[in-house]
Structure formats: structure tokens, C-alpha cells
Amino acid sequence: MQWTKLSERSVYENRWFQVNLADVELPDGRHLDHYLIRLRPVAVATVVNEADEVLMLWRHRFITDSWGWELAAGVVEDGEDVETAAAREMEEETGWRPGPLRHLLTVEPSNGLTDARHHLYWAERATYTGPPEDAFESSRRAWIPLKQVPDMITRGEIPAANMAAGLLMLHHLRLG
């Protein structure tokens, strides 16, 4: 059963997002007003070293007032290639420049409310370039054994769904 968007108008917008109101027709002919949030694409990157450790950031998210492990991530700038954005974010947030990136997966973290797409990449090597330019984004950066990831997710230490999905995929690819 497919819903049909008949119209959509902006209610609020800024550089980061746009809140729109859509007139949606349901399969039975009824209409409803549905708010949606339009977001820029997000690029995510990490590296898994020869010891099967993944580079992660420990950070606080004030919106949910929660702490958790994440991968380096940020919005794709206008005209920027997604893979380039992923490499840029990783170096800015961790101080590590990734080697050749591989696309891991693309997820839609909340497709009932937003059109956000998060594009996750990974590399098998990286070069340390110095302290992170955006060190304020995390309390620390660490190499975490990939074998610990499933238990960390279970304990709520990796609360972001996009990060959990990507890390579980890496766990599967590297450790089976």
C-alpha cells in the first residue's frame, strides 16, 4: 500500500536542514498532513587495522544526553563527493587520514520522518597526521577490537543506529 505525496512546502529551513509539511493521500483516499525533515547527506568513515581494531570516538550527544562510541561523521558539503567528505571528516575528527576507502553501506536512519542518508566507508589502513583538527567533537579516540562490537552494542555503548549497522557489517566482513 503506497502513500502518495500530493504537495510539499517548506515551514522552516537553514544551512543544516529543512522542515516541510506534505499533503499525503493514503491508499483509502484519506489525506493527512505529514511533517518531514530534509537533511544533507552524511558521510561516515573509519579504518580497521591489521589487528582487527576499529578507530572510534567516545563522545557525548547533548540532544539525548548520552555517551557512546561512534565513527567519524559529518555532512557532505555542497558540491563535495561523498567519499571525499568521509575521508575529510575522519581526518578532521581523528587525526588519521584513511587509505583508499571502500563503501560499506548506506542507511536511512529514520525514513518515516526524514530523508537522511548516511553513507558509511572504511579503509584497511590510515596514516596519522597529528592531533585532530576537530578534537572538540569527542572526548577521546581509540582503537577498539572489532570482536567486542556486538557486546558493546548490546550494552548500549554504541547507541547510534547508523554506527551499529556499519560496525556489525565490518564485524561480519572481517571476522565472519
UniProtKB/TrEMBL annotation:
For the keyword Isomerase, the answer is no
Cofactors required = Mg(2+)
Q: Which UniProt keywords apply?
A: Hydrolase
Q: Which residues form the Nudix hydrolase domain?
A: 38-171
Instruction: State the CDD domains in the record.
Output: NUDIX_ADPRase_Nudt5_UGPPase_Nudt14
Q: Which InterPro entries match?
A: Nudix_hydrolase, NUDIX_hydrolase-like_dom_sf, NUDIX_hydrolase_CS, NUDIX_hydrolase_dom
Q: Does the keyword Hydrolase apply?
A: yes
Q: Which GO terms describe its biological process?
A: nucleoside phosphate metabolic process; ribose phosphate metabolic process
Family the entry assigns: Belongs to the Nudix hydrolase family.
Q: What is this protein called?
A: NUDIX hydrolase
Organism from which the protein derives: Streptomyces gardneri
Q: What is the lineage of its organism?
A: Bacteria, Bacillati, Actinomycetota, Actinomycetes, Kitasatosporales
